[in-house]
Amino acid sequence: MTTSLTELFARYDVPVPRYTSYPTVPEWHAQPTTDEWIASLGAALEKPDATLSLYIHLPFCESLCTFCGCNTVITKDHGRSQPYVQLLLRELDAYLARVPVLAKRPVSQVHLGGGTPTFSPPELLAEMMDAIFSRLTPQADVQGSVEADPRVTSRAHLDTLGARGFSRLSLGIQDFNDETQHLVNRIQSPKLVADLVGHARASGYESINFDLIYGLPAQTPESMRATAVEVMALSPDRLAVYSFARVPWIKPQQRKFKDEQIPVGAEKRALYETVREPLLAHGYIELGLDHFAKPGDGLARASATGAMHRNFQGYTERRTTVLLGLGVSAISETPDCYHQNEKIITVYDRRVQKDEIPTLRGHKLSADDQRRRDKIIGLMTTFRMALDEAEEQDARTYLRQMLDDGLIEIEGGELRIPMRGRPFLRNAAVFFDAHFRSRESDGKPRYSTAV
After folding, report:
1. CA 276 to chain centre
2. What domains does the chain contain, in order, with CATH numbers?
3. Over the stretch 317-332, which tens digit does the pLDDT of each residue have?
4. Cβ atoms 124, 85 nearer than 8 A
5. Can you say whether the dihedral through the CA atoms of 332, 307, 171, 449 is positive or negative?
6. Which tens digit of pLDDT belongs to each residue from 390-441?
7. I want to staple 392 with a disulfide (CB 3.0 to 4.6 A). Which of 20, 349, 387, 432 is the partner?
8. DSSP assignment of 9-51, as one string?
């Protein structure tokens, strides 16, 4: 007898990681000192073929979106941006003083995230990027991307960044339903978004992404269907359709939502399917976990060639040797080390003013960590992963329920996720997660649920 989808969602809607890193942040226990982090960064960049990605965290927002899980600073004072940008540049100078080879390695990607990067005025973003590129070496085809809130993003923002090589725009849409927008404190009309998208396309932006969230309060299949209609009319190049990560023990603002307002299990997954079906009907390709792209988009092409990667920014077209994060709470990565900056802006400020590397925490990856990370990334990007003999035997035992439910296949030394199992990709990935498996019975909340 085939198990119904409703029963499957009830069975597998359990807290599991999203795997933008391995080990996941709650399992970072092998803490590096700042000197050890700098040594790892230097060793990675000393390789002649090393490449570099930059993540720049701009934390300011005018108002708090109650669903948000990001590290933000809520303020109406736009004057706070100028001294913060100077801190970013001072942090970069502290790295250059300790790792001079950083200036010589080509910058393959730059991503501005937040917060709201476009909270800063266009002329300040120009000053920041000009200063960064005067210190580092951008590739001729450097990919620049920016996250933007349509409510505070102007045409001047897009023009300024476009003149500096930015060609990718990610807009936080979340939902077009009026009631949901009011409940999550993010009100923006389709017309506002359409005007910004139109200007971005006219000024040469090659890829426009929409972020949507399902599982928010007051969402229904009908409201999500209406949002999907609005989205299809705007025809973004790619979409991220995220499951609402409800973690009120981390983000207190989420305690404003009542349990009865939040769809869960099969009801929640039905919202995703309401968006997924028209996307596939319009020719979008489903990539990895909750991502879609038109066939001609760079992410779809990377997926087709096996080049798609997953890191702290989610799915990306290029895998670089080093991801260097600048700014409060920013996370960096080398092949054998993770590093996160101070999360409290006043502490970050004080330490950078002393020309310190503002280390909060990190993790030194063991050889086993690195092996498992690559297995998880492979599964999350290709829906398949090779197993050695011992792993195959273990998988048949540990994932027995998923096998019986037809959500995974194990054959010829390979674990595969068929179409029926795609909603449960995170559940399958935990097989390779030694840290999760050693702690999964302790009952402590660490992750959002899988569905």
Report:
1. 19
2. 26-364 (3.80.30.20), 367-439 (1.10.10.920)
3. 999 999 999 999 999 9
4. yes
5. negative
6. 999 999 999 999 999 999 999 999 999 999 898 899 999 999 999 999 886 5
7. 387
8. HHHH-SB----SSSS-GGG--SPPPHHHHHHHHHHHHHSTT--
